Write the structure tokens for this entry.
Amino acid sequence: MQGQQQQAYDRGITIFSPDGRLYQVEYAREAVKRGTPSVGVRTEEGVVLAVDKRSRSQLMEADSIEKLHKVADHVGIASAGHVADARRLIDFARRRAQLEELRYEEPVDTEVLTKAVTDNIQQYTQMGGVRPFGAALLIGGVSNGEPRLFETDPSGTPNEWKAVAIGADRSEIQDYLEEHWGPDLTLEAGIELALGALATTRDEALEAEELAMGAVEAETAIYSRLGESEINAHLEEVDLEEDEE
């Protein structure tokens, strides 16, 4: 009898278990943990987003793996978990950013955009016939000259961070970030911190073609992607630092 009740709570997204849990939301969090990691780092000079986009096969085109996206001129998003779910949320974020800019004739605030996305996510935790999004997002941007970095959860909860990881091996990467992050980081140091964090869970060396990185500078409030040559240059700096240690 108890097993049948457990199954009912598992299947019903709108039903709380007796101990106050929504099992489908917890399963969505597990889906996020199965995705390759993404890292965000906030510095005084801007926000850095870095993603591991290793492919399942050497025959797969690396450029077809989409985990890092431009949402507005001043906002970028990195994802972990189900890529298709993340793309749906990113499309929503783009439409919302365009709507806000048309309505108010100014770029959307990063926090306002994040809360609009998480409100949308939350709706999928209380409606029958749907399931929660099996993806988490890192939303990085600059608003009024201030770098901001937010994480979204499958429950629809937004959290702001100085540095954060989502996806596989989150706890190990988060430990690295907590140990090495500092309030006086430059944007360049933030890029190298993100790369060093991703490297902590890899047995082999990081390769530029397996990574994607973007940054939003506080001075310009413009999101830009780093090219492979730029990532390689920063990887060399990270390797040198590790050798010195």
Observations:
- The first helix runs from residue 2 to 11.
